[in-house]
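Entry:
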Amino acid sequence: MRSEAKRLSKMRIIEFKAGTRVDLGRGSYSNLIVTKSTAKSNKNMMGYSVFTPGTDTKQKIHLTSEELAYVLSGSGKITVGKKLHSFHAGDSLHIPAGVPHGVRNDGKEDVIMVFFFSSADYPKTVDA
């Protein structure tokens, strides 16, 4: 009973503003919400991204963690090397560790995604 109460006391509600905002250019940004700094016992990381129309991010490679994302709104393309993969609101994305990828918003509305990493913080990442 005591260990259950201790475990339950670790539950956290993390406000959006508690995250770390990362500027992606052209008004686009990511907010790193569930990280080691906001939830010390976490084993996975969660964030939120907004990609404004016309945004085409540089391809990145997350070296040690896979990325999962859920598209809340908008549509665009994931660039993987020279290939383009279309996505729309309601789609889920799985990007294995080591795969170069970027986000292209070629639509007329913001693309909004919630993303997750299989690491407690933003993983080590390099430009593709």
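Residues 2-8 form the longest helix (7 residues).
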